[in-house]
Amino acid sequence: MSHGIERILCCVGLRADSDYVLHRAISLALATKAELHVLHAVKALPDEMANTLKVNIRDRELLNTLMEQRIDQAQVELEAKVDAFWQRHSDLHEAFGDRQISCTVLEGYPSSVISHFASRGKFDMIVVAANKRSFSASYAGKVTKGVIKRAKIPVVVVPKSS
């Protein structure tokens, strides 16, 4: 019998502690034998800042290189975050075996990027952080609320205490 969960998308921030979200996503992937993909969405630069850069950096090749370096640096940080997670959680790493977690960094408005990537990648579930400590009516952060609003698949919201 198929459980219907073959691909899980785990969304993490780079500044925040994301161990609890990674832990939950990995546990779900183990329980369902699903593939796991980790995504970080880099916020697009505000128009004013992008325009200032375009005006002050006339060399388009240099400007494009700088913009690409921003994404490349985030990719390095994301992969380091996953590696550090594995070092802190060797039991999960052992249980996960030789399966790979793929990591992607994309630029744009995070909730839109996450929802679009989930649809395009044919994911069956999205795992995100609640980003708030309390379970009041507004327990989810702005990005999480946007993902819930846009998603066409189930979204698992992981509270910080998980």
Quickly give the structural class.
Answer: alpha/beta
Radius of gyration: 17 Å
Spatial strand arrangement across the major sheet: 3-2-1-4-5
For the biggest sheet, the summary is: 5 strands, parallel
- What global shape is seen? globular
Runs in which pLDDT lies below 50 for 5 or more consecutive residues are: none
Q: What is the element string, with H for helices and E for strands?
A: EHEHHHEHEHE
Strand content: 15-25%
- Cα distance spanning the termini: 29 Å
Rounded mean pLDDT score:
87
Determine the number of helices (DSSP H or I, runs of at least 4 residues): 6
Overall strand count: 5
Report helical residue fraction: 40-55%
How would you describe the overall organization of this protein?
The protein has 162 residues and is an alpha/beta fold. The protein is 49% helix and 18% strand. The chain has 6 helices and 5 strands. It has helices spanning 19-32, 47-56, 60-88, 90-96, 110-120, 142-150; strands at 7-11, 35-42, 101-107, 125-129, 155-158. The protein has a 5-stranded parallel β-sheet with strand order 3-2-1-4-5, with helices on both faces. Helix 6 links the parallel strand 4 and strand 5 (155-158). The radius of gyration is 17 Å and the shape is globular. The protein starts with 6 loop residues before the first strand and ends with a strand. 26% of the residues are buried.
